[in-house]
Amino acid sequence: MSRCSTHTKPDEAMKTVFLLSFFLGWSQCLLAQKDKLWRSDVRQELANYDQVITFHDKKKRFATVKIIDKAGVLRNEANFKDEMKHGYEQFFYPDGGLYWKSDYRDNVQNGIFMVYYPDGSLKRKEKYRNGFRKEGYCYDSLGNTTAYYPFKTQPEFKDGLYSLQRYFRDKWPSSLRGNLAGWTFLEMNLIIGTDSLARVGSLKAEDFEHRKALASAVKTMPKWTPGTFDGQVSETNYRVSLVLTPEGLYLTELMNSRRGIAPPNSPNGSNRHYSPR
To answer: What is the pTM of this model?
Structure first.
């Protein structure tokens, strides 16, 4: 009685491997071509730089944004998912050398953050988890460890947020107080200069009187402690969000922390870095 063999002959085995490799490569090629058809670039030429947005899918959920200066040098490259930073971001020196690189997950730093000197030597290394720094080291140009300092700091109003809220309350015109049927949201972007003075970058309010009151309050605002960037005092944008209620004027972040909930119909606070549609 003959015994059946389950072993494949060498030439048949090679043929099977070849066919599998061929079909695998062919399918990958088709997928790559399909993905390529979905990709699209949008280029915006602005006054000081050009912005190139590359979408990686039909629904435009995933994108890479590049900032290119007028000399043609890539200065910034970041990846996004649903208009939030997701993946790596890189910033470059004017000569094209890498300045810093960081990883993000859903708009929050998550992973390794590296900063380099112009000659390419390591200046800083930090490790983040869900937006919180777990480790941080700074180095001089020779590679020696130096005292740690934050890469970026926000401007600070004298005595903190409650003092800033009190300042706006004191400056708010009596004609705009009381007799309120609901809540009114006021937003502005302040520019805190290296001279510690605050200037209005933009205002968002329902009517002219509210905008006038906000601008007037900024004009007489006391000096701030300016923000820093990579150890140097830097002009910094600072967002102020206020809500006018029948009970008074509040910074929304203080109201949220006090009540534990967001105000009704509050504006969406997510940062949009590009306009995908």
So the answer is: 0.71
Rounded CA separation 257/240 (Å): 16
**Residue 264 CB: number of other CB atoms within 10 A?**
8
pLDDT per position as a tens digit, 53-80: 999 988 899 999 999 999 999 999 999 9
Q: Which fold has domain 161-259?
A: 3.30.1150
Q: Where are the domains of the chain?
A: 40-149, 161-259
Do 117 and 123 meet the contact criterion of CB atoms below 8 Å apart?
A: yes
Distance CA 185, CA 255 (A): 13
CB atoms within 10 A of CB 84: 15
Q: Which residues on neighbouring strands pair with residue 77, listed in sequence order?
A: 66, 90
**pLDDT tens per residue across span 11-34:** 554 454 444 444 445 445 444 445
At residue 246, what is the residue type?
A: P
Residue partners of 260: CB distance under 8 A and separation at least 6: none
At 225-251, the pLDDT tens digits run 999 999 999 999 999 999 998 888 999
Task: Answer whether CATH 3.90.930.1 is correct for domain 40-149.
Answer: yes
Place of tokens 């006021």: 186
Alpha-helical segments (H) within the chain: 10-38, 161-171, 208-219, 252-259
C-alpha 275/C-alpha 277 separation (Å) is 6
Helices 161-171 and 208-219: crossing angle in degrees, nearest 10, is 120
Please, what is the end-to-end C-alpha distance for the chain in angstroms? 74
Write the CA distances from 101 to 76, 87, 141, integer angstroms.
10, 11, 18
Distance CA 66, CA 63 (A): 10
Rounded CA separation 224/209 (Å): 26
Do the beta carbons of residue 78 and residue 274 sit within 8 Å?
Answer: no
